[in-house]
Amino acid sequence: MTDLLLLPGLLCDAALWRAQADALADQARITIADVALDASLGAMAERALAAAPQHFALAGLSMGGYLAFEILRRAPGRVTRLALFDTSARPDSPEQSRRRRALMALSRSGAFKGVTPRLLPQLLHPANLDGPIGAGVIAMAERVGRDAFLRQQQAILGRPDARPGLAAIAVPTLVAVGEADALTPPDRAREIAASIPGARYIEIPGCGHLPPLEAPAAVTGLLRAWLG
Question: Into how many domains does the chain fold?
Answer without folding.
Answer: 1
